[in-house]
Amino acid sequence: MRKLFRKIRQLLSKLSFRTGIVVFSLCIPCYIFSFAQFALPGDLESQIVLWALFFGLGQVFQYTGRIILGTEGIKRLKRHFGRK
User: Fold this and answer.
1) What is the pLDDT of residues 68-83, one digit of tens each?
2) CA 30, CA 56: separation in Å to the nearest integer?
3) 55-62 long-range contacts, Cβ below 8 Å, gap at least 24?
4) Are the C-beta atoms of 61 and 27 separated by less than 8 Å?
5) What is the reported pTM?
């Protein structure tokens, strides 16, 4: 199992910085929708299922984006947003 995770991580880390930014930014709408859907009418069970689904997708996009960006990509983002 660990070999599989290492192999997936190596494959993801070969992707470009721009791809990492796109994947990383996809977590934002998922997090927004996961909490905003509680304002919509509907039964509680479906709201909980939708929250779990979109919150989980947000987590997947966030951690996958971080793997793609790597340490240097995160530092590059911090430098870019630190200037403003």
Assistant:
1) 988 888 888 888 888 6
2) 8
3) 55/30, 55/31, 57/27, 57/30, 58/27, 58/28, 58/30, 58/31, 58/34, 59/27, 61/23, 61/24, 61/26, 61/27, 61/30, 62/24, 62/27
4) yes
5) 0.81
